[in-house]
Specification:
7 strands, 5 helices, 28% strand, alpha+beta, elongated, 214 residues, seven-stranded mixed sheet
Length: 214
């Protein structure tokens, strides 16, 4: 069965609650456990409405066999931080390694670029190697570590703080384009210089005075 990724709808609220209970029981990498997010469908409907009404926020669900198997969202920030957004993602354990995480992250980054978001922030358990590798693949950079970020069964868990600077990618692209233009100009000028040099050498050779033999 193909995976379908689309934006969240209010009618997905009950499925979202079921999904959070599933993934919460499968891993300790999330902010909730087997209880899920613990909200009612009505509360989740309002949550989805708020996301859909915010031009700098989005939530995507990955669907398989009419069930949610992956979820990712961009949460835009306000006022002087409106150029930034927070990112969160989860994937059902049965789909780990299937590429759903990459597909969801790609969708969120594309949304950010299209909606004026310049920096994406996220946090993840410092020992969540799988997630950290995924984020690095998409250009996220670690900028710090938060000690005792979460507490699970009496154990304190550190979190890595990471961010993706979309301005940097844009600047690098412009620098590369400028470099390529300069290279083209350099090659054109070199061809002209080489031609002039060859012509000058030909003229000098033509008018060169040969030494007389003794």
């Amino acid at each position: 069965m193909d995976i379908i990724i689309r934006e969240a709808r209010t009618e997905d609220a009950a499925k979202l609650i079921e999904y959070t209970k599933l993934v919460g029981a499968q891993t300790d990498n999330l902010s909730f456990g087997k209880e899920g997010i613990g909200d009612t469908p009505e509360v989740e409907k309002e949550f989805i409405k708020r996301i859909n009404s915010d031009p700098k926020s989005v939530m995507y669900f990955a669907w398989k066999n009419d069930d949610i198997v992956g979820c990712a969202n961009i949460s835009g920030m306000k006022r002087r931080m409106s150029h930034r957004a927070n990112f969160a993602i989860s994937v059902a354990k049965s789909e780990w390694g299937s590429g759903i995480g990459s597909a969801l992250l790609e969708k969120c980054i594309s949304f950010a670029k299209d909606n004026g978001i310049e920096i994406i922030n996220l946090d993840t358990r410092s020992d969540n190697i799988r997630a950290i590798s995924l984020y690095k693949k998409f250009g996220f950079v670690k900028i710090g570590r938060m000690p005792a970020f979460s507490k699970i069964n009496g154990e304190y868990i550190d979190a890595d703080l990471m961010y993706l600077d979309l301005r940097e990618k844009s600047n690098n692209r412009r620098k590369m384009e400028a470099f390529e233009r300069l290279e083209a100009i350099r090659r054109e000028n070199k061809d002209e210089v080489d031609f002039n040099k060859e012509r000058e050498e030909a003229i000098n050779k033509k008018h060169q005075i040969q030494p007389q033999s003794q």
